[in-house]
């Protein structure tokens, strides 16, 4: 708010989340969404667009640290489809964030949320989770710390 109060013009648009619902995934919509968001920033004479990205295929490799995952390539391009869509649109990967979101609940919460049973303390691979969920039966807690990747589009 200090910038607004001081009449300092903004130079960056920060995106918080872009979601394509499951019924519409795989139709190439992500490229169009990226183009539209970039155009919004350009139309407002902003210099850059910054977005935290949840890589779409990271959940298939939950044991691989995010900083290694973002280095992977396939056919000379960024491995992850969502990151690749941004890179193709001119973005650069700024850096990974190893703790973008934390979800903590009781063991029964986690069993309810996942449909799994956690019989002992330890790390568990949970469908669609980017990293393992840590279960602590002694303290009746489950904890998930999700990473993401910050990208920047220079406009």
Question: Can you walk me through this structure?
Answer:
There is one protein chain. This protein has a single domain (2-154), classed as Aminopeptidase (3-Layer(aba) Sandwich). 25% of the residues lie in helices and 32% in strands. It has five helices and eight strands, in the order αβαβαββαβαβββ. Strands 1, 2, 5, 6, 7 and 8 form a six-stranded mixed β-sheet that branches. It has a two-stranded antiparallel ribbon with strand order 3-4. The longest helix is centred in the N-terminal third of the chain and has 15 residues, at 29-43. The radius of gyration is 18 Å and the shape is elongated. The model has no long low-confidence stretch (mean pLDDT 91).
What is the element layout, followed by pairings?
Blueprint: H1 2-5, E1 12-14, H2 29-43, E2 48-53, H3 66-69, E3 73-74, E4 77-78, H4 81-88, E5 91-105, H5 107-114, E6 122-124, E7 133-136, E8 141-154
Parallel strand pairs: 1-2
Antiparallel strand pairs: 2-8, 3-4, 5-8, 6-7, 7-8
Tell me briefly what this model is:
By secondary structure, this protein is α+β, with helices and mostly antiparallel strands. The protein has helices at 2-5, 29-43, 66-69, 81-88, 107-114, and strands at residues 12-14, 48-53, 73-74, 77-78, 91-105, 122-124, 133-136, 141-154. Strands 1, 2, 5, 6, 7 and 8 form a six-stranded mixed beta sheet that branches.
Keywords:
single chain, 8 strands, elongated, 155 residues, 5 helices, six-stranded mixed beta sheet, alpha+beta, two-stranded antiparallel sheet, Aminopeptidase
CATH architecture level-2 label: 3-Layer(aba) Sandwich
CATH topology description: Aminopeptidase
Helical proportion, percent range: 25-40%
The tally of beta strands, per DSSP, is: 8
Q: Regarding quaternary structure, how should these chains be classified?
A: single chain
Q: Output the CATH class name.
A: Alpha Beta
The main pleated sheet reads as: 6 strands, mixed
The domain tally reads: 1
CA radius of gyration is 18 Å
Estimate the global geometry from the Cα principal axes. elongated
Helix/strand class? alpha+beta
Low-confidence runs: none
Continuous helix count? 5
Provide the residue-averaged pLDDT.
91
Q: Tell me the β content.
A: 25-35%
């Amino acid at each position: 708010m200090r910038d607004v109060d001081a009449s300092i013009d903004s130079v960056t648009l920060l995106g918080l989340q872009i979601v394509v619902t499951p019924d519409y995934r795989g139709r190439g919509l992500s490229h169009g969404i990226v183009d539209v968001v970039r155009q919004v920033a350009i139309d407002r004479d902003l210099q850059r667009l910054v977005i935290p990205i949840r890589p779409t295929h990271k959940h298939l490799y939950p044991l691989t640290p995010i900083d290694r995952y973002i280095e992977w390539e396939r056919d000379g391009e960024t491995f992850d489809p969502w990151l690749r869509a941004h890179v193709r649109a001119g973005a650069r990967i700024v850096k990974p964030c190893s703790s973008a979101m934390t979800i903590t609940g009781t063991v029964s919460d986690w069993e309810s949320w996942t449909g799994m049973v956690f019989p002992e303390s330890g790390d568990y691979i949970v469908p669609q989770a980017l990293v393992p969920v840590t279960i602590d039966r002694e303290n009746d807690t489950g904890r998930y710390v999700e990473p993401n990747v910050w990208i920047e589009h220079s406009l």
